[in-house]
UniProtKB/TrEMBL annotation:
Family recorded in the similarity comment: Belongs to the class-I pyridine nucleotide-disulfide oxidoreductase family.
Name by which UniProt lists this protein: NAD(P)/FAD-dependent oxidoreductase
InterPro entries reported for this sequence: FAD/NAD-bd_sf, FAD/NAD-binding_dom, FAD/NAD-linked_Rdtase_dimer_sf, Pyr_nuc-diS_OxRdtase, Pyr_nucl-diS_OxRdtase_dimer
Domain annotation FAD/NAD(P)-binding: ranges: 9-323
Annotated Pyridine nucleotide-disulphide oxidoreductase dimerisation domain residues: 344-449
Cofactor(s), names only, from the UniProt record: FAD
Domain of life: Bacteria
Keywords: FAD, Flavoprotein
Stretches that traverse the bilayer: none
Xref: SUPFAM superfamilies: FAD/NAD(P)-binding domain (SSF51905), FAD/NAD-linked reductases, dimerisation (C-terminal) domain (SSF55424)
Protein backbone atom coordinates (compact mmCIF):
# COMPACT_ATOMS: atom_id res chain seq x y z
CA UNK A 1 0.00 0.00 0.00
CA UNK A 2 1.34 3.46 -0.90
CA UNK A 3 1.98 5.64 2.14
CA UNK A 4 3.36 8.77 0.45
CA UNK A 5 1.41 11.97 0.92
CA UNK A 6 0.08 11.91 -2.67
CA UNK A 7 -1.80 8.75 -1.85
CA UNK A 8 -2.85 9.53 1.70
CA UNK A 9 -5.96 11.56 2.45
CA UNK A 10 -8.09 12.30 5.48
CA UNK A 11 -11.25 11.24 3.65
CA UNK A 12 -11.82 9.33 0.41
CA UNK A 13 -15.25 9.58 -1.23
CA UNK A 14 -15.99 6.78 -3.69
CA UNK A 15 -18.75 7.78 -6.09
CA UNK A 16 -19.66 11.42 -6.52
CA UNK A 17 -23.43 11.45 -6.86
CA UNK A 18 -25.19 14.48 -5.40
CA UNK A 19 -24.39 13.45 -1.80
CA UNK A 20 -20.80 12.35 -2.41
CA UNK A 21 -20.00 15.55 -4.28
CA UNK A 22 -21.44 17.56 -1.38
CA UNK A 23 -19.46 15.58 1.23
CA UNK A 24 -16.20 15.85 -0.70
CA UNK A 25 -16.54 19.58 -1.42
CA UNK A 26 -17.69 20.53 2.07
CA UNK A 27 -15.01 18.57 3.90
CA UNK A 28 -12.34 20.01 1.62
CA UNK A 29 -13.64 23.51 2.33
CA UNK A 30 -13.31 22.75 6.02
CA UNK A 31 -9.60 22.03 5.49
CA UNK A 32 -9.55 18.23 5.27
CA UNK A 33 -7.47 16.47 2.63
CA UNK A 34 -10.14 14.86 0.47
CA UNK A 35 -9.94 12.54 -2.52
CA UNK A 36 -13.08 12.22 -4.64
CA UNK A 37 -13.29 9.27 -7.02
CA UNK A 38 -15.84 8.76 -9.77
CA UNK A 39 -15.73 6.48 -12.77
CA UNK A 40 -18.43 8.45 -14.53
CA UNK A 41 -19.53 12.07 -14.29
CA UNK A 42 -19.22 14.14 -11.13
CA UNK A 43 -22.77 14.73 -9.89
CA UNK A 44 -24.01 11.23 -10.76
CA UNK A 45 -27.36 10.26 -12.26
CA UNK A 46 -29.40 13.24 -11.11
CA UNK A 47 -27.93 16.01 -13.29
CA UNK A 48 -27.05 13.89 -16.33
CA UNK A 49 -29.58 11.05 -16.66
CA UNK A 50 -32.07 11.56 -13.84
CA UNK A 51 -33.97 14.32 -12.11
CA UNK A 52 -32.84 17.37 -14.04
CA UNK A 53 -33.08 16.28 -17.68
CA UNK A 54 -36.24 14.27 -16.97
CA UNK A 55 -37.87 17.30 -15.37
CA UNK A 56 -36.85 19.36 -18.38
CA UNK A 57 -38.65 16.81 -20.55
CA UNK A 58 -41.66 16.99 -18.23
CA UNK A 59 -41.72 20.79 -18.34
CA UNK A 60 -41.88 20.62 -22.13
CA UNK A 61 -44.57 17.92 -22.16
CA UNK A 62 -46.65 19.87 -19.66
CA UNK A 63 -46.41 22.97 -21.85
CA UNK A 64 -47.89 20.96 -24.70
CA UNK A 65 -50.69 19.68 -22.49
CA UNK A 66 -51.42 23.14 -21.15
CA UNK A 67 -51.60 24.56 -24.67
CA UNK A 68 -54.07 21.84 -25.58
CA UNK A 69 -56.21 22.90 -22.59
CA UNK A 70 -56.79 26.35 -24.08
CA UNK A 71 -59.67 24.87 -26.02
CA UNK A 72 -62.60 24.68 -23.65
CA UNK A 73 -61.17 27.29 -21.28
CA UNK A 74 -60.02 30.21 -23.37
CA UNK A 75 -60.47 29.77 -27.11
CA UNK A 76 -57.99 28.20 -29.47
CA UNK A 77 -54.26 28.15 -30.16
CA UNK A 78 -54.48 26.22 -33.40
CA UNK A 79 -52.63 22.98 -33.78
CA UNK A 80 -49.97 22.31 -31.14
CA UNK A 81 -46.96 20.76 -32.88
CA UNK A 82 -44.46 19.01 -30.64
CA UNK A 83 -40.80 19.16 -31.66
CA UNK A 84 -38.50 16.90 -29.65
CA UNK A 85 -35.36 18.54 -31.03
CA UNK A 86 -36.06 21.58 -28.83
CA UNK A 87 -36.04 19.38 -25.72
CA UNK A 88 -33.03 17.33 -26.83
CA UNK A 89 -31.08 20.54 -27.45
CA UNK A 90 -32.04 22.02 -24.09
CA UNK A 91 -30.90 18.82 -22.34
CA UNK A 92 -27.58 18.97 -24.18
CA UNK A 93 -26.95 22.70 -23.89
CA UNK A 94 -28.47 23.67 -20.56
CA UNK A 95 -28.71 20.54 -18.42
CA UNK A 96 -25.75 18.31 -19.19
CA UNK A 97 -23.17 20.32 -21.18
CA UNK A 98 -23.41 17.41 -23.61
CA UNK A 99 -22.59 15.04 -20.73
CA UNK A 100 -19.41 16.87 -19.82
CA UNK A 101 -18.72 17.40 -16.10
CA UNK A 102 -15.88 19.92 -16.40
CA UNK A 103 -17.83 22.54 -14.46
CA UNK A 104 -18.54 20.09 -11.64
CA UNK A 105 -14.94 18.85 -11.50
CA UNK A 106 -13.63 22.44 -11.38
CA UNK A 107 -16.16 23.28 -8.65
CA UNK A 108 -14.94 20.33 -6.60
CA UNK A 109 -11.23 20.92 -7.05
CA UNK A 110 -11.85 24.65 -6.54
CA UNK A 111 -12.97 23.78 -3.03
CA UNK A 112 -9.64 22.06 -2.43
CA UNK A 113 -10.48 18.40 -3.08
CA UNK A 114 -8.42 16.12 -5.29
CA UNK A 115 -10.35 14.31 -8.03
CA UNK A 116 -9.48 11.04 -9.70
CA UNK A 117 -11.59 9.55 -12.46
CA UNK A 118 -11.68 5.80 -12.02
CA UNK A 119 -13.37 2.87 -10.31
CA UNK A 120 -12.85 2.84 -6.57
CA UNK A 121 -13.04 -0.18 -4.32
CA UNK A 122 -12.54 -0.49 -0.58
CA UNK A 123 -9.69 -2.91 0.06
CA UNK A 124 -10.15 -3.02 3.85
CA UNK A 125 -10.44 -0.46 6.66
CA UNK A 126 -8.81 2.81 5.55
CA UNK A 127 -7.72 1.38 2.20
CA UNK A 128 -9.06 2.18 -1.24
CA UNK A 129 -7.95 0.87 -4.60
CA UNK A 130 -8.60 2.96 -7.71
CA UNK A 131 -7.89 1.01 -10.87
CA UNK A 132 -4.81 -0.60 -9.33
CA UNK A 133 -3.50 2.42 -7.40
CA UNK A 134 -3.67 2.14 -3.61
CA UNK A 135 -4.80 5.07 -1.43
CA UNK A 136 -5.04 5.46 2.32
CA UNK A 137 -7.82 7.26 4.19
CA UNK A 138 -6.75 8.19 7.71
CA UNK A 139 -10.13 9.47 8.89
CA UNK A 140 -12.69 7.69 6.80
CA UNK A 141 -14.19 6.44 3.57
CA UNK A 142 -17.57 7.62 2.26
CA UNK A 143 -19.40 5.48 -0.30
CA UNK A 144 -21.89 7.12 -2.69
CA UNK A 145 -21.87 4.78 -5.65
CA UNK A 146 -25.62 4.93 -6.29
CA UNK A 147 -27.62 2.61 -8.45
CA UNK A 148 -28.04 1.55 -12.04
CA UNK A 149 -31.21 0.46 -13.85
CA UNK A 150 -32.23 -3.03 -12.72
CA UNK A 151 -32.78 -5.28 -15.71
CA UNK A 152 -35.35 -7.92 -14.71
CA UNK A 153 -34.63 -11.56 -15.57
CA UNK A 154 -37.09 -11.71 -18.44
CA UNK A 155 -36.23 -14.28 -21.11
CA UNK A 156 -34.50 -12.69 -24.08
CA UNK A 157 -34.44 -9.17 -22.67
CA UNK A 158 -30.70 -8.89 -22.16
CA UNK A 159 -30.00 -9.75 -25.79
CA UNK A 160 -32.11 -6.87 -27.10
CA UNK A 161 -31.17 -3.19 -27.59
CA UNK A 162 -33.47 -2.04 -24.78
CA UNK A 163 -33.31 1.49 -23.43
CA UNK A 164 -32.69 2.50 -19.82
CA UNK A 165 -32.99 6.01 -18.43
CA UNK A 166 -29.65 6.83 -20.12
CA UNK A 167 -30.76 6.17 -23.69
CA UNK A 168 -34.17 7.81 -23.39
CA UNK A 169 -32.66 10.95 -21.89
CA UNK A 170 -29.99 11.08 -24.59
CA UNK A 171 -32.51 10.47 -27.40
CA UNK A 172 -32.43 13.02 -30.19
CA UNK A 173 -35.31 11.38 -32.02
CA UNK A 174 -38.35 9.70 -30.59
CA UNK A 175 -39.68 6.32 -31.69
CA UNK A 176 -43.17 5.95 -33.11
CA UNK A 177 -44.02 3.49 -30.34
CA UNK A 178 -42.64 2.52 -26.95
CA UNK A 179 -43.21 -0.26 -24.43
CA UNK A 180 -42.30 0.75 -20.88
CA UNK A 181 -41.46 -2.10 -18.54
CA UNK A 182 -42.38 -0.86 -15.06
CA UNK A 183 -44.99 1.62 -13.90
CA UNK A 184 -43.08 3.20 -11.02
CA UNK A 185 -41.86 6.79 -10.84
CA UNK A 186 -39.62 6.59 -13.90
CA UNK A 187 -42.09 4.63 -15.99
CA UNK A 188 -45.02 6.94 -15.24
CA UNK A 189 -43.13 10.21 -15.65
CA UNK A 190 -41.44 9.27 -18.91
CA UNK A 191 -44.48 7.52 -20.41
CA UNK A 192 -46.48 10.68 -20.09
CA UNK A 193 -43.71 12.76 -21.66
CA UNK A 194 -43.44 10.40 -24.59
CA UNK A 195 -47.21 10.22 -25.12
CA UNK A 196 -47.50 14.00 -25.10
CA UNK A 197 -44.84 14.14 -27.80
CA UNK A 198 -46.87 11.78 -29.95
CA UNK A 199 -45.32 8.40 -29.13
CA UNK A 200 -47.72 5.45 -28.85
CA UNK A 201 -46.97 4.16 -25.33
CA UNK A 202 -47.85 0.96 -23.50
CA UNK A 203 -46.87 0.57 -19.85
CA UNK A 204 -46.47 -2.95 -18.48
CA UNK A 205 -46.62 -3.12 -14.70
CA UNK A 206 -46.28 -6.48 -12.93
CA UNK A 207 -47.88 -5.25 -9.68
CA UNK A 208 -51.64 -4.84 -9.58
CA UNK A 209 -51.37 -1.06 -9.93
CA UNK A 210 -48.97 1.59 -11.21
CA UNK A 211 -47.13 3.69 -8.61
CA UNK A 212 -47.67 0.74 -6.29
CA UNK A 213 -45.69 2.26 -3.41
CA UNK A 214 -48.10 5.17 -3.07
CA UNK A 215 -51.76 5.37 -2.04
CA UNK A 216 -54.12 3.25 -4.18
CA UNK A 217 -56.33 6.32 -4.78
CA UNK A 218 -53.32 8.09 -6.32
CA UNK A 219 -52.54 5.06 -8.48
CA UNK A 220 -56.13 4.96 -9.74
CA UNK A 221 -56.22 8.68 -10.51
CA UNK A 222 -52.88 8.51 -12.29
CA UNK A 223 -54.02 5.48 -14.28
CA UNK A 224 -56.96 7.57 -15.51
CA UNK A 225 -54.70 10.52 -16.33
CA UNK A 226 -52.26 8.37 -18.30
CA UNK A 227 -55.11 6.80 -20.27
CA UNK A 228 -56.42 10.28 -21.02
CA UNK A 229 -53.01 10.96 -22.58
CA UNK A 230 -53.55 7.96 -24.83
CA UNK A 231 -51.30 5.57 -22.91
CA UNK A 232 -52.27 1.89 -22.64
CA UNK A 233 -51.66 0.61 -19.12
CA UNK A 234 -51.34 -3.14 -18.66
CA UNK A 235 -51.13 -3.77 -14.93
CA UNK A 236 -51.14 -6.96 -12.88
CA UNK A 237 -49.27 -8.77 -15.62
CA UNK A 238 -45.53 -9.19 -16.07
CA UNK A 239 -43.45 -9.75 -19.16
CA UNK A 240 -42.48 -13.37 -19.86
CA UNK A 241 -40.36 -12.95 -22.95
CA UNK A 242 -38.80 -10.17 -25.00
CA UNK A 243 -37.51 -10.42 -28.57
CA UNK A 244 -36.12 -7.95 -31.10
CA UNK A 245 -36.08 -8.65 -34.83
CA UNK A 246 -33.74 -5.86 -35.84
CA UNK A 247 -36.43 -3.20 -36.10
CA UNK A 248 -39.09 -3.87 -33.46
CA UNK A 249 -39.57 -5.37 -30.02
CA UNK A 250 -42.10 -8.05 -29.23
CA UNK A 251 -43.03 -8.59 -25.60
CA UNK A 252 -44.98 -11.67 -24.58
CA UNK A 253 -46.89 -11.09 -21.36
CA UNK A 254 -47.66 -13.68 -18.70
CA UNK A 255 -51.27 -13.91 -19.92
CA UNK A 256 -50.06 -14.95 -23.38
CA UNK A 257 -50.85 -11.65 -25.11
CA UNK A 258 -48.16 -9.87 -27.10
CA UNK A 259 -47.18 -6.26 -27.58
CA UNK A 260 -44.87 -4.78 -30.14
CA UNK A 261 -43.15 -1.43 -30.43
CA UNK A 262 -40.15 0.28 -31.96
CA UNK A 263 -38.45 0.79 -28.59
CA UNK A 264 -38.57 -0.71 -25.12
CA UNK A 265 -37.68 1.20 -21.96
CA UNK A 266 -36.67 -0.76 -18.85
CA UNK A 267 -37.91 1.18 -15.81
CA UNK A 268 -38.25 -1.70 -13.41
CA UNK A 269 -36.40 -0.34 -10.38
CA UNK A 270 -32.77 0.33 -9.51
CA UNK A 271 -29.95 -1.90 -8.32
CA UNK A 272 -27.06 -1.13 -5.97
CA UNK A 273 -24.00 -3.34 -5.68
CA UNK A 274 -22.33 -2.91 -2.26
CA UNK A 275 -19.89 -5.79 -2.75
CA UNK A 276 -18.64 -4.32 -6.05
CA UNK A 277 -17.33 -1.31 -4.13
CA UNK A 278 -15.71 -3.55 -1.54
CA UNK A 279 -18.16 -2.97 1.30
CA UNK A 280 -17.91 -6.71 1.99
CA UNK A 281 -14.36 -6.07 3.21
CA UNK A 282 -15.72 -3.87 6.01
CA UNK A 283 -18.52 -6.10 7.28
CA UNK A 284 -21.39 -5.81 4.78
CA UNK A 285 -22.71 -9.22 3.72
CA UNK A 286 -21.49 -10.21 0.25
CA UNK A 287 -25.06 -10.58 -1.06
CA UNK A 288 -26.51 -7.48 0.62
CA UNK A 289 -28.52 -5.30 -1.77
CA UNK A 290 -27.93 -2.17 0.31
CA UNK A 291 -25.24 -0.71 2.56
CA UNK A 292 -26.93 -0.84 5.99
CA UNK A 293 -26.31 2.40 7.87
CA UNK A 294 -27.00 3.64 11.38
CA UNK A 295 -28.52 7.03 12.17
CA UNK A 296 -25.16 8.73 11.44
CA UNK A 297 -24.96 6.94 8.08
CA UNK A 298 -22.10 4.82 9.40
CA UNK A 299 -21.64 1.38 7.84
CA UNK A 300 -18.78 0.46 10.17
CA UNK A 301 -15.98 2.21 12.00
CA UNK A 302 -14.54 4.81 9.59
CA UNK A 303 -16.92 3.95 6.74
CA UNK A 304 -20.02 5.96 5.84
CA UNK A 305 -22.54 5.57 3.01
CA UNK A 306 -25.01 8.02 1.49
CA UNK A 307 -27.59 7.95 -1.27
CA UNK A 308 -29.49 5.22 -3.09
CA UNK A 309 -27.13 2.49 -1.86
CA UNK A 310 -28.36 2.95 1.73
CA UNK A 311 -31.90 1.86 0.80
CA UNK A 312 -33.46 4.77 2.67
CA UNK A 313 -35.12 6.26 -0.42
CA UNK A 314 -33.66 6.64 -3.90
CA UNK A 315 -33.98 10.40 -4.11
CA UNK A 316 -31.53 13.24 -4.51
CA UNK A 317 -32.91 14.93 -1.41
CA UNK A 318 -32.11 11.80 0.65
CA UNK A 319 -28.56 11.70 -0.72
CA UNK A 320 -28.05 15.39 0.13
CA UNK A 321 -29.67 15.04 3.56
CA UNK A 322 -27.47 12.09 4.45
CA UNK A 323 -24.43 13.99 3.16
CA UNK A 324 -25.17 16.69 5.73
CA UNK A 325 -25.31 14.06 8.48
CA UNK A 326 -21.99 12.55 7.36
CA UNK A 327 -20.23 15.91 7.08
CA UNK A 328 -21.18 16.68 10.69
CA UNK A 329 -20.21 13.23 11.91
CA UNK A 330 -16.79 13.27 10.21
CA UNK A 331 -16.08 16.73 11.61
CA UNK A 332 -17.40 15.86 15.05
CA UNK A 333 -19.98 18.67 14.82
CA UNK A 334 -23.21 18.48 16.76
CA UNK A 335 -26.46 17.84 14.96
CA UNK A 336 -29.51 15.64 14.87
CA UNK A 337 -29.25 12.02 13.70
CA UNK A 338 -30.83 10.98 10.41
CA UNK A 339 -34.56 10.28 10.57
CA UNK A 340 -36.84 9.26 7.76
CA UNK A 341 -40.36 9.37 9.27
CA UNK A 342 -41.23 12.44 7.20
CA UNK A 343 -39.59 11.35 3.95
CA UNK A 344 -41.15 13.40 1.14
CA UNK A 345 -41.31 12.27 -2.47
CA UNK A 346 -42.91 13.66 -5.61
CA UNK A 347 -43.70 11.88 -8.84
CA UNK A 348 -43.71 14.65 -11.43
CA UNK A 349 -46.55 13.38 -13.57
CA UNK A 350 -49.51 15.58 -14.46
CA UNK A 351 -51.18 15.59 -12.00
CA UNK A 352 -48.17 15.48 -9.68
CA UNK A 353 -48.20 12.96 -6.87
CA UNK A 354 -46.67 14.34 -3.69
CA UNK A 355 -46.41 12.13 -0.62
CA UNK A 356 -44.79 12.22 2.79
CA UNK A 357 -44.36 9.67 5.55
CA UNK A 358 -46.53 6.57 5.72
CA UNK A 359 -49.30 5.49 3.39
CA UNK A 360 -52.55 4.34 4.98
CA UNK A 361 -51.55 0.68 4.53
CA UNK A 362 -48.18 1.23 6.21
CA UNK A 363 -49.81 3.08 9.09
CA UNK A 364 -52.39 0.32 9.62
CA UNK A 365 -49.59 -2.23 9.66
CA UNK A 366 -47.49 -0.32 12.20
CA UNK A 367 -49.95 1.62 14.38
CA UNK A 368 -52.94 0.67 16.51
CA UNK A 369 -55.34 3.53 15.90
CA UNK A 370 -55.28 5.05 12.43
CA UNK A 371 -57.59 7.67 10.97
CA UNK A 372 -57.79 8.72 7.34
CA UNK A 373 -59.29 11.74 5.60
CA UNK A 374 -59.56 12.22 1.84
CA UNK A 375 -60.73 15.12 -0.28
CA UNK A 376 -61.00 14.88 -4.06
CA UNK A 377 -59.50 18.07 -5.48
CA UNK A 378 -62.60 18.59 -7.63
CA UNK A 379 -64.55 19.21 -4.41
CA UNK A 380 -62.34 22.17 -3.49
CA UNK A 381 -63.10 25.57 -4.98
CA UNK A 382 -59.72 26.01 -6.66
CA UNK A 383 -59.73 22.45 -7.93
CA UNK A 384 -63.19 22.93 -9.41
CA UNK A 385 -62.23 26.23 -11.06
CA UNK A 386 -59.09 24.68 -12.52
CA UNK A 387 -60.87 21.44 -13.49
CA UNK A 388 -58.04 19.80 -11.61
CA UNK A 389 -57.86 16.07 -11.03
CA UNK A 390 -56.29 14.85 -7.84
CA UNK A 391 -56.81 14.46 -4.15
CA UNK A 392 -55.51 15.27 -0.73
CA UNK A 393 -55.29 12.38 1.72
CA UNK A 394 -54.10 12.57 5.29
CA UNK A 395 -53.19 9.66 7.56
CA UNK A 396 -53.24 10.19 11.32
CA UNK A 397 -52.00 8.37 14.37
CA UNK A 398 -55.19 8.96 16.37
CA UNK A 399 -53.56 7.97 19.67
CA UNK A 400 -50.96 10.71 19.37
CA UNK A 401 -53.20 13.18 17.52
CA UNK A 402 -50.66 13.82 14.77
CA UNK A 403 -50.37 13.16 11.06
CA UNK A 404 -47.97 10.37 10.06
CA UNK A 405 -48.49 10.56 6.32
CA UNK A 406 -50.14 12.47 3.51
CA UNK A 407 -50.64 12.50 -0.25
CA UNK A 408 -51.19 15.64 -2.30
CA UNK A 409 -52.04 14.84 -5.87
CA UNK A 410 -52.90 17.59 -8.32
CA UNK A 411 -51.44 20.55 -10.16
CA UNK A 412 -48.31 21.50 -8.21
CA UNK A 413 -49.00 18.56 -5.88
CA UNK A 414 -45.31 18.58 -4.91
CA UNK A 415 -45.61 22.19 -3.76
CA UNK A 416 -48.84 21.64 -1.81
CA UNK A 417 -46.97 18.80 -0.09
CA UNK A 418 -44.73 21.31 1.70
CA UNK A 419 -47.35 22.17 4.28
CA UNK A 420 -48.03 18.54 5.12
CA UNK A 421 -44.34 17.63 5.18
CA UNK A 422 -43.92 20.26 7.91
CA UNK A 423 -46.94 18.86 9.75
CA UNK A 424 -45.60 15.28 9.70
CA UNK A 425 -41.99 16.21 10.45
CA UNK A 426 -42.93 18.67 13.18
CA UNK A 427 -45.58 16.34 14.64
CA UNK A 428 -47.89 19.34 14.71
CA UNK A 429 -51.00 18.44 16.76
CA UNK A 430 -54.01 17.93 14.49
CA UNK A 431 -56.01 20.37 16.60
CA UNK A 432 -53.44 23.06 15.73
CA UNK A 433 -53.74 22.15 12.05
CA UNK A 434 -57.53 22.36 12.14
CA UNK A 435 -57.47 25.71 13.92
CA UNK A 436 -55.27 27.55 11.42
CA UNK A 437 -56.46 29.71 8.50
CA UNK A 438 -56.15 28.31 4.97
CA UNK A 439 -56.14 30.88 2.15
CA UNK A 440 -59.13 30.86 -0.18
CA UNK A 441 -59.36 29.61 -2.88
CA UNK A 442 -56.11 27.61 -2.91
CA UNK A 443 -55.46 23.95 -3.57
CA UNK A 444 -53.82 23.65 -0.17
CA UNK A 445 -57.11 24.68 1.42
CA UNK A 446 -58.13 21.11 0.60
CA UNK A 447 -55.93 20.09 3.53
CA UNK A 448 -58.43 21.66 5.93
CA UNK A 449 -61.19 19.70 4.28
CA UNK A 450 -59.28 16.40 4.42
CA UNK A 451 -58.49 17.00 8.10
CA UNK A 452 -62.19 17.60 8.71
CA UNK A 453 -62.93 14.20 7.21
CA UNK A 454 -60.49 12.27 9.44
CA UNK A 455 -62.33 9.17 10.56
C1 LIG B 1 -34.92 9.08 -14.70
C2 LIG B 1 -34.71 9.41 -13.24
C3 LIG B 1 -35.39 10.48 -12.70
C4 LIG B 1 -35.19 10.79 -11.36
N1 LIG B 1 -35.87 11.86 -10.84
C5 LIG B 1 -35.69 12.19 -9.56
C6 LIG B 1 -36.34 13.32 -9.01
O1 LIG B 1 -37.10 14.02 -9.68
N2 LIG B 1 -36.12 13.63 -7.72
C7 LIG B 1 -35.28 12.89 -6.94
O2 LIG B 1 -35.11 13.23 -5.77
N3 LIG B 1 -34.64 11.81 -7.43
C8 LIG B 1 -34.82 11.45 -8.72
N4 LIG B 1 -34.15 10.38 -9.23
C9 LIG B 1 -33.25 9.63 -8.35
C10 LIG B 1 -31.90 10.35 -8.24
O3 LIG B 1 -31.30 10.49 -9.51
C11 LIG B 1 -30.94 9.61 -7.31
O4 LIG B 1 -31.59 9.29 -6.11
C12 LIG B 1 -29.78 10.54 -7.06
O5 LIG B 1 -28.97 10.63 -8.21
C13 LIG B 1 -28.94 10.17 -5.84
O6 LIG B 1 -28.15 9.08 -6.11
P1 LIG B 1 -26.83 8.76 -5.33
O7 LIG B 1 -26.41 9.91 -4.51
O8 LIG B 1 -27.00 7.46 -4.66
O9 LIG B 1 -25.73 8.59 -6.49
P2 LIG B 1 -25.81 8.53 -8.06
O10 LIG B 1 -26.44 9.75 -8.60
O11 LIG B 1 -26.36 7.22 -8.48
O12 LIG B 1 -24.27 8.62 -8.45
C14 LIG B 1 -23.37 7.61 -8.12
C15 LIG B 1 -22.03 7.93 -8.73
O13 LIG B 1 -21.11 6.92 -8.33
C16 LIG B 1 -20.27 6.59 -9.43
N5 LIG B 1 -19.74 5.25 -9.17
C17 LIG B 1 -20.43 4.09 -9.05
N6 LIG B 1 -19.60 3.09 -8.70
C18 LIG B 1 -18.37 3.64 -8.61
C19 LIG B 1 -17.09 3.13 -8.24
N7 LIG B 1 -16.92 1.85 -7.89
N8 LIG B 1 -16.04 3.97 -8.26
C20 LIG B 1 -16.20 5.27 -8.61
N9 LIG B 1 -17.38 5.81 -8.93
C21 LIG B 1 -18.45 5.00 -8.91
C22 LIG B 1 -21.16 6.73 -10.65
O14 LIG B 1 -20.37 6.97 -11.80
C23 LIG B 1 -22.02 7.94 -10.26
O15 LIG B 1 -21.44 9.14 -10.71
C24 LIG B 1 -34.31 10.04 -10.56
C25 LIG B 1 -33.61 8.96 -11.13
C26 LIG B 1 -33.81 8.65 -12.45
C27 LIG B 1 -33.04 7.50 -13.04
N1 LIG C 1 -39.73 12.10 -9.10
C1 LIG C 1 -38.84 11.39 -8.44
O1 LIG C 1 -38.45 11.67 -7.31
C2 LIG C 1 -38.25 10.20 -9.11
C3 LIG C 1 -38.42 10.01 -10.48
C4 LIG C 1 -37.87 8.87 -11.04
C5 LIG C 1 -37.18 7.99 -10.25
N2 LIG C 1 -37.03 8.22 -8.94
C6 LIG C 1 -36.33 7.25 -8.07
O2 LIG C 1 -35.81 6.21 -8.84
C7 LIG C 1 -36.28 4.97 -8.35
C8 LIG C 1 -36.40 4.00 -9.45
O3 LIG C 1 -37.52 4.28 -10.29
P1 LIG C 1 -38.25 3.12 -11.06
O4 LIG C 1 -39.51 3.68 -11.61
O5 LIG C 1 -37.32 2.41 -11.97
O6 LIG C 1 -38.50 2.06 -9.91
P2 LIG C 1 -39.74 1.75 -8.95
O7 LIG C 1 -39.23 0.74 -8.01
O8 LIG C 1 -40.36 2.98 -8.46
O9 LIG C 1 -40.78 1.07 -9.94
C9 LIG C 1 -40.46 -0.07 -10.71
C10 LIG C 1 -41.73 -0.77 -11.09
O10 LIG C 1 -41.40 -1.79 -12.03
C11 LIG C 1 -42.20 -2.91 -11.76
N3 LIG C 1 -41.54 -4.08 -12.31
C12 LIG C 1 -40.41 -4.70 -11.88
N4 LIG C 1 -40.10 -5.74 -12.67
C13 LIG C 1 -41.04 -5.77 -13.64
C14 LIG C 1 -41.27 -6.60 -14.77
N5 LIG C 1 -40.43 -7.61 -15.05
N6 LIG C 1 -42.34 -6.37 -15.55
C15 LIG C 1 -43.17 -5.34 -15.27
N7 LIG C 1 -43.00 -4.52 -14.22
C16 LIG C 1 -41.95 -4.72 -13.42
C17 LIG C 1 -42.32 -2.93 -10.25
O11 LIG C 1 -43.47 -3.65 -9.84
C18 LIG C 1 -42.42 -1.45 -9.90
O12 LIG C 1 -43.74 -1.00 -9.83
C19 LIG C 1 -37.61 5.32 -7.69
O13 LIG C 1 -37.94 4.38 -6.69
C20 LIG C 1 -37.35 6.66 -7.11
O14 LIG C 1 -36.80 6.53 -5.84
C21 LIG C 1 -37.56 9.30 -8.35
Amino acid sequence: MATDSNHTFDVIVIGLGPGGEHVAGSLAERGLRVLGVDRGLVGGECPYWGCIPSKMMIRAADALAEARRVEGLAGSVGEVSPDWSVVAKRIRDEATDNWDDRVAVDRLTGKGATFVRGTGRIAGPGRVDVDGTAYTATKGIVVNTGTTAAVPPVEGLRDTPYWTNHEIIEATELPASLIVLGGGAIGCELSQVMARFGVEVTVVEAADRILALEEPEASAALHKALEADGITVRQGVGADKVAHDGSAFTVTLADGSTLSAERLLVAAGRRADPAAVGLDTVGVAQDSRTAPVDDRCRVSDGVWAVGDITGKGAFTHVSMYQAGVVIRDVLGDDGPPAEYAALPRVTFTDPEVGAVGMTEAQARERLGNVQVGLTPLGETTRGWIARADGLIKVVADADRGVLVGATTMGPAGGEVLGALAVAVHGEVPIERLTSMIYAYPTLHRGIEDALGRLA
